[in-house]
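Why do we bother with holo predictions? Because pocket geometry can differ from the apo form. Keep that in mind while you read this record for zinc ion.
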Amino acid sequence: MATSMATSKSIDWDVCERCVEESGIGIRLPTGGKCWAHADDSDLDAALKRLGEDGRVDARGVPVTTELLQRLLAAVPKDERGHVVLTDPRFDRAVFHGDAVFDTATFRGTAVFQEAAFQDAAQFLGATFASDATFGMATFRGVAWFSQANFHRRRVPRGDVPGPRSVRRCDFPARRRV
Ligand SMILES: [Zn+2]
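The structure, written out:
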């Protein structure tokens, strides 16, 4: 209880026991007291099974490696074309280590990447954001690819999507360029 307060007063979720030791802020899975990155196999398997049923991933503050992301996406339900379908995904303040590849993924509901940190490439080639997508204050240290990504909701606030200031190179649909 005191640990999450010590990390940051703006964190309104229960922080993983292991993350706390490293000054991290990953949200705990429902069981085991640890996050996606640090969970024991049994807790991780249970969470992946649930993810396979509802497509909802909550990885707020979690350090996400390329391998972990692939594991998450492998568990997520697929549409008839075999593309992953994420529902209301939460990656607020997640830190992506290694390339983050969300190619052809469909994001249903609200996709939140608020203050996410992409340490390497961020790739959303052909991804579909069916509703709201928030990338506010996200940082992109590598290349950010949004080529052929579809943003169906066009009322995303200006500046709330990746712009030239925050990325070295952003291949972004022209109608969404900021
Ligand atoms: Zn953790």
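The helical segments are 2-7, 17-21, 41-54, 66-75.
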